[in-house]
Request: fold
Amino acid sequence: MGSALALGLLVLLVVLFLLMAVRVVRQGYVYTVERLGKYTLAAEPGLHLIVPFIDRVGHKINMMEQVLDIPGQEIITKDNAMVGVDAVVFFQVLDAGKAAYEVSNLYGAIMALTTTNLRTVMGAMQLDETLSKRDEINARLLSVVDHATSPWGVKITRVEIKDIRPPLDISEAMARQMKAERLKRAEILEAEGARASRILRAEGEKQSAILSAEGQKEAAFRDAEARERSAEAEARATQMVSDAISSSGNQAINYFVAQEYTKAVARFADSPNAKTILFPVEATQLIGSLGGIGELVKGTFGESERAPDSGTALPPTRTAESVRRAAPTRASVPPSDPRQVR
Reply:
């Protein structure tokens, strides 16, 4: 009975010993193993055996990339403006032994280090620079904090500024400044547009004036050419008339005068308001000159028109005296309205 009880206790101790000796490390973590209180090794993910009562697990270190939120800070800039800043830090543990035994509180140390360097970096900048140079602030913080945490076995991957909150009065002043700047740009653009429009309009008017002047020049040239040709034609006609007069004498003069006189009388007859036509005394001379015209034509063309072998003679030409006796001195046109008769 006693031996059975002792055997049962021995089995129980063996099972407890095995349970205490076996350790399973999860993925993404590294356990530090201490033997008699001294750090001996870092247990990677998987199954590990340790000596119970001699070895123990000291720290469970998270090896994954972690995010540390930096609470809001009130920072005074170089131009004495108070701004509120929020930031966030991304880091990863590379050496579990250093992270466990080189610093007491890893998270608190990283937060304090980031906060102090954030005040240092932004305190050396103007307010406008802090608002417009976030990338520069992030790069400077990353360099400083990563260099300071490297002895702890930690790698700072990113430092980002989440928000910068200037005071309310400064925000309102900045809004008014931005509005004034945008109004200024709008006025400048409007003035430039009006200037370009006036320039284009003036250029168009200039081109129009040039084209108009060229057109007037061409028209004047063509008009002068036409007048020159008309003058040449008039000169040739005058020369021909002069030649005809010199060869025919008074008969040619009478012919041209009678022709113009006949045209003038025809224009009287074409008047829409004329119902009665009164011939002046000189009309008898016109009619008499018709005989001279006949004699001229007969003298000029008679010989060529007469057939030499024909025995028939041309009809006799009426003399100017017979035409004068036959022509009336007044030609009456029956008016449509008796009241129009003069």
About this structure: The CA atoms of residues 288 and 322 lie 9 Å apart.
